[in-house]
Amino acid sequence: MSTITNNKLDLETVGHLINGKTTHHDGPHLDIYNPAKGEVSKYLEIASEHTLNEAIISAQKAFPAWRDLPVIKRARIMFRFKELLEKNKDKICQLIGEEHGKIPHDAMGELQRGIENVEYACTAPEVLKGEYSKNVGPSIDCWSEFQPLGIVAGITPFNFPAMIPLWMYPLAIVCGNCFILKPSERDPSSTLFIAGLLYEAGLPNGVLSVVNGDKDLVNLLLEDKRIEAISFVGSTPIAKHIYTKATANGKRCQALGGAKNHAIVMPDADIDNTVTQLMGAAFGSSGERCMALSVAVVVGDEIGDILISKMKKAMEALKVGAYTDNTNDFGPLITQEHKHKVSSYIDSAENQGATIEVDGRNIVVKGCEGGYFIGGTLIDNVTADMTSYKEEIFGPVLQIIRVKSMEAAMQLIDDHMYGNGTCIFTRDGEAARYFSDNIKVGMVGINIPLPVPVSYHSFGGWKQSLFGDLFAYGPDGVRFYTRRKTITQRWPSTNLREGKQFSFAESASYATSEK
Ligand code: NAD
Fold first, then answer.
1. What distance in Å separates the CA atoms of residue 210 and residue 503, rounded to the nearest whole number?
2. What is the pLDDT of residue 501?
3. DSSP state for residue 464 in the 8-state scheme
4. Which of 128, 133, 326, 469 has its CA 20 to 30 A from that of 275?
5. Global pTM?
6. Which residues, judged by CB distance below 6 Å to any ligand atom, belong to the binding site of ligand 1?
């Protein structure tokens, strides 16, 4: 667990990015760990109220000119940013690995998704064109334009330190806003490095700031009247708190929370393909994904038995270890505390009557004995009343629930408090269509285990997985980061009515008087 300390070893300190510059101020620090080793690797400065104020003042100063810069020029900066992200891929993935523990192939995947959001931001001149109706009345035209909000803040979780900030600020900024980002305190280095690249791409000072810290800093952001809107991604209890407090303070807010994603495995599913998909979706990134598939609901005992036996076989080949070896399938959990939490969910499933088919609790990774590892875990005979089913585990654990019909499987999913992602494995198009039409979940896959929408759609869950009205990024992101203004204009046609002609002299004098 991170602790606040002033007793420093001789380690690097991660500061903030304010007004286009990396800054350091004295003050308390949090420990940043290398989770593969279980050792403190860096310190993180906690931004004071004064530091946050500097960031907000720099944004206030930058906003008028940034808002008025032609959108094509704002988009050009995003084009250059995309190139720099591609050029620095290896460095970014290394920073992610050191603090998150993610294996490079997985870090590359998240970065690629982030880059795609920058690509969508490059389309701003097209998506900000607005709506126009001519002649809504005599000589009357009406249009809606989408104006930036002002200063927007983003608060992000540890599990995608590159991708989730990139869901937010490229789009917010290209829409003409200034942005203050508060990354996760667990793995801030890649986030800070990436933000620096946007300045290298030509961003004017003050348009983006990164302030580091923990919940106290978040609460300052929520209370500050100069901040118009908050984008949050993290766990559900915190998302609820953020949404309640931000909206009570008059801010626009979208708060994305936790998940429990089910896959229905139908008796007609292509079972070998299902196993391959489940292996990646349940265990990839140590299950620390809000779209991880953590429950497989098998329809019928026969398919259940086949699935379990094939999963057990496939899991024998899982390779768990440090980010330094790209042949590993997944790395450690983020903290010792989180490792204990995941382990205690496995204990509770066992104590409440489930069958542990593959047990990852006692895994030892050679050379990384202090790391926060849990191996892939498979649990059968799980029931809906078990704690491990009701709550989000956020670890490499796949639970199996056996039901008799697709309707029973869908009922389970609908009754669950979370509604982020879900998927069905089947060869039956009619069943798949019925499922996607009726299931109460925000993102649905059909033979696709992690249905993360591409950057030109939008991402979000239902029920306790999202508080707010708009999904993240894509078209909903544009709506979130802009405010509609509708203008109705009449230019009476006096000249035409009176049969006069427009003369060059009249327009010239009009132009002169305008000056
Ligand atoms: P978290 O909720 O602990 O932290 C998220 C952010 O909130 C961090 O920046 C943290 O500093 C801040 N925070 C933590 N406690 C706070 C408090 N009491 N008051 C104010 N701010 C606080 O989440 P995490 O552990 O970093 O990330 C994992 C969680 O995020 C999981 O539940 C996962 O499902 C969820 N998640 C959801 C999505 C999604 O799109 N729905 C995506 C990624 C992660």
1. 56
2. 75
3. T
4. 326
5. 0.95
6. 155-160, 182, 184-185, 214-215, 218, 233-235, 238, 241, 256-259, 290, 392, 394, 420, 461, 465
